[in-house]
Amino acid sequence: MAVVGIGQTKHVAARHDVSIAGLVREAASRALADAELTWADIDAVVIGKAPDFFEGVMMPELYLADALGAVGKPMLRVHTAGSVGGSTALVAANLVAARVHRTVLTLAFEKQSESNAMWGLSLPVPFQQPLLAGAGGFFAPHVRAYMRRTGAPDTVGSLVAYKDRRNALKNPYAHLHEHDITLEKVQASPMLWDPIRYSETCPSSDGACAMILTDRAGAARSPRPPAWVHGGAMRSEPTLFAGKDFVSPQAGKDCAADVYRQAGITDPRREIDAVEMYVPFSWYEPMWLENLGFADEGEGWKLTEAGVTELDGDLPVNPSGGVLSTNPIGASGMIRFAEAALQVRGQAGEHQVPDARRAVGHAYGGGAQFFAMWLVGAEEPPS
Amino acid sequence: MTAASPPDVLRAPLVVEFPFTRSLGPVQSAFLTGLREGVVLGVRTSDGKVMVPPTEYDPVTAEEIRDLVEVAATGTVTTWAWNPAPRPNQPLATPFAWVLVTLDGADTAILHALDAPGPAAVRTGMRVRVRWAADRIGAITDIACFEPHEGAADAADAGAAPHDGVFADAVTGIVAEARLDYTYSPGRAQTAYINALAERKTVGERCPSCRKVYVPPRGACPTCGVATTDQVEVGPAGTVTTYCIVNIKARNLDIEVPYVYAHIALDGAGLALHGRIGGIPYDQVRMGLRVEPVWTEGGRHPDHYRPTGEPDADYDAYKELI
Ligand SMILES: [Zn+2]
């Protein structure tokens, strides 16, 4: 199966001009236009977003059926916390691969301005000690553990942030466009949760991303180059358990290994041309480079430091600017998957990696417990 | 037959509330601003039907619809249910009927409250009219409720008239206060843990399969999927396995920044719990630091952990517990 249509909103801090319905509609309409299809061509809709508490609309998929042309069609909601955009795309892909439906619209969104995700993630629970930190405080100790384990110098995080923010300048849909960004500015930004600096954290965004997935026959009719799905997998593990490795979770490794097996990849570093991975805090780039098999354990930071992951490096990571530049939470995973598809379709515009033939989209969520990943290619996979 | 009385499991009220905000978009903005002005607006769909309340997209064709029309403030009850005991924040404080009302000129019904003396006064097909709220702000509550109304639909009024939806000072957003009231129970295992904390002891549970000690216990081992029942006291001392220095003040937390938020593996525990480190300058905390709990009078949990003065633990001794 293949991606034949992609649509995103311009991600911003607050879209006060549209309802949630209007926001998702914008992304879905753009995906249909890209595929040159109409609502009538869609057989099913698969939607994802982060917890309902984030906007306070219970089961928003019900109210969004009109906006997504889902009336009279199957509509499914997927929910796997921050990785949901990725899992949603994979559920849609599986419906096509299983020949349940021929053409599926998949979409993910978040309108963070309507609520406070920090509040939604830290509801007080009776008898329990209040959380002392927040999302950054949850992840910062794991970053320190990574630095201790690998001996990475503390400058690596700022290199990632500097790269991703510069990449975002080439992506018209990215939320942050920091035209005057310098490495010095990143390094001088306040330390929020030491070792994580303000400039090394993701923004809070309103946005939606949509894709049209279809079968071989649909791809053959596509007016633009399709992105073929060569492999996709999801893996989960508990939030907390004795022996959990927060630095490199087993579920993440297993997820990547499954995708490579499906796609026939034996050397990801050499065989993959572009990576869109879920990096909400800069240090997750070197951490995931190891977790996803692009570097040996303890070596991920060396790729970042050597410039390998720059847009003109030999393994560009997050050419779109990544989650560090755009974070409508529920949509962030799907944006990774869609940006990977844009790369192999040759339609990434200014942030195009020249001649990208194979690209990975990756997402994770919860307490580093849900993982979703796919590999898309410019060529049709052997059947 | 005798039954062991269940151990007393803790319970407490849990209130979750938040003032969510909503950006309305063009159609809902016109609808709610109209209510403020005493005008009920709907939309005309592609098949000519008038929907009240309006939607932004056609339920049949999925096309965007922006053809606003004005309908009457009178209508007909299509079905109803008597509500003998109103809850807080429902439209009326006295018993009332939930009604679906098709306003004159509309093809769909709107759900609202009908002020009536009793169920005998309500019937399907009865005529009703909007009772406007005294102070209107551009919200669905601008319709205080419906009330009985004598008189058939006025033929001249029965149709829906086109409306441009333009008002001065349009409402573009609303605040949707949400509140959920729960009774929370932490369950058997955590009740035992919390009760032990009252005696300043930390008690976890050992998995019978992998032998790891879970603190706090959840009643089951998430890896093995078996119940944990064997109680084990851990600590009181432990090792800082990793940490961060928090430099921004968290909401509702009365702790001066910077402070150290650490993962602490209590001696004997199979995984780390989280706590604050005190009694040492924040920039001298390190991985491997040995710490012990500091309790305050009446505190349910240790207030923080402070250094014990022991030599730091070896990295290899705690690296699996981070
Ligand atoms: Zn076990």
How does this structure look, described?
The complex is a heterodimer of chains A (383) and B (322). With 383 residues, chain A is an alpha/beta fold. Chain A has helices at residues 20-35, 60-63, 84-97, 117-121, 135-150, 156-168, 183-188, 216-220, 250-263, 268-271, 284-291, 300-305, 322-325, 329-345, and strands spanning 2-8, 44-49, 75-78, 103-111, 191-194, 196-197, 206-214, 227-236, 274-276, 358-365, 370-377. Chain A contains 14 helices and 11 strands. Chain A has a 9-stranded mixed sheet with strand order 3-2-4-7-1-8-11-10-9. In chain A, strands 5-6 form a two-stranded antiparallel ribbon. The mean pLDDT of chain A is 95. In chain B, strands 7-6-5-8-9 form a 5-stranded antiparallel sheet, with no helix packed on it. Chain B has 3 helices and 21 strands. The complex binds zinc ion (ZN). Zinc ion is lined by residues 207, 209-210, 212, 221, 223-224 of chain B.
Number of domains of chain A: 1
Total helices of chain A: the number is: 14
Overall tally of domains of chain B: 2
Mean pLDDT of chain B: 93
Oligomer: heterodimer
Low-confidence stretches of chain B: 1-5
CATH-assigned homologous superfamily of chain A: Thiolase/Chalcone synthase
Approximately what portion of the residues of chain B adopt beta-strand conformation? 35-45%
Could you say what the CATH architecture of chain A is?
3-Layer(aba) Sandwich
Rg of Cα set of chain B: 31 Å
% residues in beta strands of chain A: 15-25%
Rg of chain A (C-alpha, Å): 19 Å
Task: State the strand order across the main sheet of chain A.
Answer: 3-2-4-7-1-8-11-10-9
For the secondary structure, the number of strands of chain B is: 21
Summarize the biggest pleated sheet of chain B: 5 strands, antiparallel
The separation of the N and C termini of chain A measures 10 Å
**Alpha-beta content class of chain B:** mainly beta
